[in-house]
Amino acid sequence: MRIAALLTLLAIATPAQAQLYSCIEDGKKVIRQQPCPATEPRNPEASPPGASSQAAALEMVKRLRLGENMQEIGLQAASRTQTYAIITKTVGPEKGRAVLAEELQRAAPKYQGRWDQNLASAYAPLFTAEELQSITQKQRQSPHFSKFMAKQDEVGAAMRSRSIELLKQYVTEVMTTAFRRVAPAK
Q: Could you state, in order of their start, the residue ranges of all structural domains in the chain?
């Protein structure tokens, strides 16, 4: 799969706000940071007070694991570099790919949060918080799923523009470390 096609599935958002819950206690409406007691039915699609599309988008990206292909995209980008050609010439294609995969996995935690934030930032302006929450909870059964699918090209374009530098940083770090692992000491 081409990197451009894979990037359509990715993005990042600003840090998620703390989730707030609107509860009824002693006949009064109160705002809490913890979920309401189980005795109060809650509409699962209703936005908590203060929830934003950005926070809902980040929650969707994380819960549905939409940014998980960062390592795969990194592998595709890295395997097209001259450095990767040198690595495979030095240790062979099988060992070279294994070293690259290990380094991609090792470096991923450093970049995954920003990657997810970028993906959420790509979704947030296109959907309301309620639509994003519905997609997160109901996935294909959400009444907003067709809109979600129809917006993938826009999300992909936004993700590419937001994440190209992040991808370069990720791949550069990975290739530098992989090369040092296999390069003969001088």
A: 3-17+52-182, 19-51
| 3-class secondary-structure state, position 151 | coil
Structure tokens at 140: 């294909």
d(CA 57, CA 134): 11
Q: Is the pTM of this model over 0.85?
A: no
Mean pLDDT value of segment 80-103: 96
Residue with the larger pLDDT of the pair 155 and 48: 155
CA-to-CA separations, 54 to 59, 76, 82, 91, in angstroms, rounded: 9, 29, 38, 45
Confidence at residue 26, expressed as pLDDT on a 0 to 100 scale: 60
Yes or no: say if 145 and 135 are a contact pair by the CB < 8 Å rule: yes
Region label for 50, one of left (φ > 0), alpha (ψ between -120 and 50) or beta (otherwise): left
Mean pLDDT of the 28-49 span = 50
Q: Where are the alpha helices (DSSP H) in 10-151?
A: 53-63, 70-78, 82-91, 93-123, 129-138, 145-150
**Side chain identity at 146, as an amino acid letter?**
S
Helix (H), strand (E) counts: the chain: 8, 2
Q: Any idea how long the chain is?
A: 186
Six token digits for residue 79: 């395997």
More confident position, 16 or 122: 122
Residue 30 host element (H or E)? strand 28-32
